[in-house]
# Entry
Amino acid sequence: MLFKRLSLAVLVAAASHAALASPATSTIQFEGAVKGTTCTVSVGGVDASTPSTVILSDLDPDDISEGAYWWRQGANFSIDLMGCSGSATLVRASFQGANGTTVTDGRLNNMATDSPASNIQLWLRVAYPHSRDIEVGGDQSTLPYASIWAGMAWLGYEVRYTGESAPSAGNIEAAVEYTVAYQ
# Structure
């Protein structure tokens, strides 16, 4: 009888260990997202969904020497980024002619149709973070990046009048399309 009880105890113990050691299956679910960096973009305080206008300072044609390459200050402007989310830490913009604006040697040609000034182009330059000429429509791969800090970045630019001979008085119009790239 003792043998039967001992056998039954060993059998029950073995069965309970077998239940503990039996394979178990379950599921592990992985979740995540691939998100690009996004920011709210504005130019001069105007949301990027609305075209912005930068007003240049007036230029007196008599201030320009005939036959000499020249440039004069026109205006400063910025592309402001706020509420940036994502993993990017750097940002820069690149520029192409827009709205029929043609480009010669990286500079914007005057496209005014109402009393246009002659012998004048507009020259874009990076003002911040590092001053550098922008070749509109050309290779802009060496333009500097600005840091995104605390979800914000500021890209400073200047647009200048330029030419190789004295301009005539008149209106000046040109447009660029910009693309913001993150890194």
